[in-house]
Amino acid sequence: MARPDRSDERRAEHLPVIARTFAELGYRRTTTAELARRCGVQETTLYRLWNGKKAMFLAAIDHVFTASMSIWQEQATAAAGASPAETVLAYEAEHLGEFGLYRILFAAIGESDDDDIRAAVSSSYRRFHRWIERQIVDHRRRRTDTAAAPIDPAFAAWAAVGVGTMINIARDLDLVADDDRARLLSDVGRMLLD
């Protein structure tokens, strides 16, 4: 009798480690030997699960979105009194970038001459944008005042992506203190929401 295929389960088990490794070392400095070492498996095990380093990197790019959505959905569901958008914004003001996974997207931008990587990172940013735009629209529908928002939700969502990106750059380069980064995201995020 054949053993059940546990490939999806094993990929899910190894992907957080793979993502952290790419976030730490970037795409070019990460080797499959290092990925295998950190996963505690042989390289051949990883090659049975993914078709090479690039496939692992593409999975890591997707993991950034999936991991963020897991946290954001949890926060949005727990919103009590505030809109889900306000709850997610408050969470991100305190925690943005703490896991360092954004560095995978930065590394992917550096590899955007590869069509597959370019498509994956573009898709990731578009999915972030769409989710944020939906939260902005939902938040504005819940408002009790009827004043028209000055910024189109689609533009506000891109601005939010840009502010988040800039704050992560500031974190990596130690340009802005932690408290100031939190306040910046909170203040600018409130303006973009409303």
Q: What's the quick description here?
A:
The protein is an all-alpha fold. 76% of the residues lie in helices and 0% in strands.
Shape: elongated
Q: Which structural class do you get from the secondary structure elements?
A: mainly alpha
Give a quick account of the main beta sheet: strands, pairing sense, barrel closure: none
Rg over CA atoms, rounded to whole Å, is 19 Å
The stretches of 5 or more residues where confidence is low (pLDDT under 50) are none
- In round numbers, the mean pLDDT is 92
* Run of helices and strands: HHHHHHHHH
Explain this structure:
- It contains 9 helices and no strands.
- It is mainly α and 194 residues long.
- The chain has a domain at 61-193.
Task: Supply database-style keywords.
0% strand, 194 residues, single chain, 9 helices, mainly alpha
Write the layout of secondary structure elements.
Elements: H1 7-29, H2 32-39, H3 43-49, H4 53-77, H5 84-95, H6 102-110, H7 115-142, H8 153-172, H9 178-193
